[in-house]
Design brief:
The complex is a heterodimer of chains A (about 270) and B (about 250). With about 270 residues, chain A is α/β, with parallel strands linked by helices. In chain A, about 40% of the residues lie in helices and about 15% in strands. Chain A has an eight-stranded mixed beta sheet, sandwiched between helices. The chains are: A alpha/beta (about 270), B alpha/beta (about 250).
């Protein structure tokens, strides 16, 4: 049985798709057979970030409607053997994603994959509910600012009441906080909420903190999941987060302002 | 077109609902003793009993059937704004006496609900009842206890008693209780205690960060709460119809 993880946030533009791409890539790179599903019907982006937009023939809605098989719609990643992408439809209505259809696709994927990553659209409507319904775990992507934290809180409430696990009275969805666009400089100046602030407000365990970085924007534009930028702090922070997701213990990095290295101090002193 | 009076649809529908009722477990009946004790109990929580439906439980009644004058009790309770709607009893003489006083009869035996439709007498029938186990004291309504954080968009309702939350209450959420509200964490959403008009209700929290607090309709919004007690452990209560905030450690 696959583990189903939803990447969600309530608010838009906080880094859900970036995170979905990196987490799925990270899991696949560790040898887990992973599929990432784009639930954002009409606003599909995941294929761009995964650099497979030119290979989309069939999409998620086609499979739900029985117009294509999963085998036809799944796109195999060019970089990592064990990674597959199920793109969203760009032309259909989001209501075409029926609960029964989504359930059938997820069930079928569960048979062959280790991880199913569901990239949720923003908001708390149909698409978002479909994306989170089957989740075993949830990665709640949050920016360190008040409105994003509020929306994350809302989506946590929905996870507790509207997910399959909640409806069936099973063990609740495991919740993880992923703080993105974190800028220690601005936190120090009091312009941003700190990790502790956000943890305190949302009271769920911290999965990772991704520092704000130009690399994220660049790699998105190039169709490269940030986690593959192994030299960058954002890439390393995503790698830490994936490690923690599979149960490794990693210390948190990039939480404080970068100190000047010994050389720069010696020469620029 | 259903909302037009010419075509109003069916006159009524029968619904089966559960609610908590106040049970008076009567051991013997003496008019003076009864009224004195009643006064005392009402004094402890005046709002709670006002216009409350009451069930007289006679399962532990030790007095003589003849000593029990239902008309007398009904009048006495009505003078104190309480309304006896039903009697829980099996003794046949008492059943007949209660019936002739126009009261409904409830079969004892715990959590059974009365049938909705058959064998109705033409008297105001109380809604189906739920006894909250044996030993019902006048004020013993179990509180609703919440252990998970109350998130934005969620509403928790304790329609009959107290509400106890052992976790944070987040902005954009709402707590409603007929009785007191206890929040053993920060209270960041809205909290409305005494929603049925109980002016004795209070709100307690370890950190006052609320969007709105209200007791029996008297409210304060976040803006009015920003002074000394903001983010401090406090209790809120009504005095002379005014809502007061008091620090909890200041006694």
């Amino acid at each position: 049985m696959a583990k189903i993880i939803v990447v969600t946030s309530g608010k838009g533009g906080v880094g859900k798709t970036t995170t979905s791409a990196s987490i799925s890539t990270g899991l696949a790179r560790r040898g887990h057979k992973t599929v990432v599903i784009d639930f954002d019907v009409g606003l599909r982006n995941l294929d761009l970030i995964m650099n497979c937009e030119r290979r989309v023939v069939y999409d998620f809605v086609n499979v739900i409607q029985g117009e294509a098989t999963l085998g036809q719609a799944l796109i195999k990643d060019k970089r990592i053997e064990t990674l597959y992408i199920l793109p969203a439809s760009q032309t259909r209505e989001k209501e075409a994603m029926t609960p029964e259809g989504v359930e059938r696709v997820i069930e079928e994927l569960s048979k062959t994959f280790d991880y199913i990553i569901c990239d949720s659209p923003a908001g708390i409507e149909h698409g978002a509910l479909m994306a989170l319904y089957h989740a075993d775990e949830a990665v709640v992507v949050t920016n360190p600012e008040v409105s994003s934290v509020r929306d994350s809180d809302r989506i946590l409430g929905i996870l507790q009441s509207k997910s399959k696990r909640a409806e069936k009275g099973l063990e609740p969805v495991r919740e993880h906080l992923l703080l993105t666009r974190y800028n220690p400089d601005r936190v120090e100046r009091g312009e941003m909420l700190s990790v502790e602030d956000v943890k305190d407000i949302l009271s769920i365990p911290l999965l990772g903190v991704i520092p704000e970085s130009q690399v994220v924007l660049n790699s998105s534009n190039q169709g490269l999941p940030v986690i593959l930028e192994t030299e960058s702090d954002a890439g390393q922070a995503y790698d830490d987060a994936v490690a923690r997701l599979v149960g490794e213990d990693r210390p948190f990095r990039f939480l404080t302002k970068e100190k000047k290295g010994i050389f720069s101090r010696m020469f620029k002193g | 077109m259903n909302e037009h009076p010419e075509n109003p649809g069916p006159c009524f529908e029968l619904k089966s609902k559960s609610m908590s009722l106040v049970f008076v477990e009567l051991y013997y009946y003496d008019e003076q003793d009864f009224e004195e004790l009643l006064r005392q109990k009402i004094g402890q929580a005046p709002g709670f009993f006002r216009d409350a439906p009451i069930v007289i439980d006679l399962e532990k009644y030790r007095g003589l059937p003849d000593e029990l004058n239902f008309f007398n009790i009904i009048g006495l309770c009505r003078r104190h704004n309480m309304h006896i709607v039903s009697v829980q009893v099996t003794n046949e003489r008492l059943v007949n006496a209660a019936k002739s006083a126009g009261l409904a009869i409830t079969k004892p035996g715990g959590k059974k609900t009365t049938p909705v439709c058959p064998e109705k007498e033409e008297k105001p029938e109380p809604p189906a009842k739920v006894t909250s186990d044996s030993g019902n004291e006048l004020t013993a309504i179990p509180p609703k206890v919440i252990t998970q954080p109350v998130r934005s968009g969620q509403q928790i309702h304790a329609p009959h008693g107290d509400l106890i939350v052992l976790a944070p209450v987040q902005p954009g959420s709402e707590l409603l209780a007929a009785g007191n509200i206890h929040v053993y964490g920060p209270l960041r959403g809205r909290a409305l205690a005494g929603i049925n008009g109980d002016e004795q209700a209070r709100i307690f929290t370890l950190s006052l960060e609320a969007e709105l607090v209200s007791i029996a309709g008297q409210y304060k919004i976040s803006e009015d709460l920003q002074d000394g007690d903001w983010k401090k452990p406090v209790q809120l209560h009504l005095a002379d119809g005014q809502l007061f905030v008091n620090p909890l450690d200041n006694h």
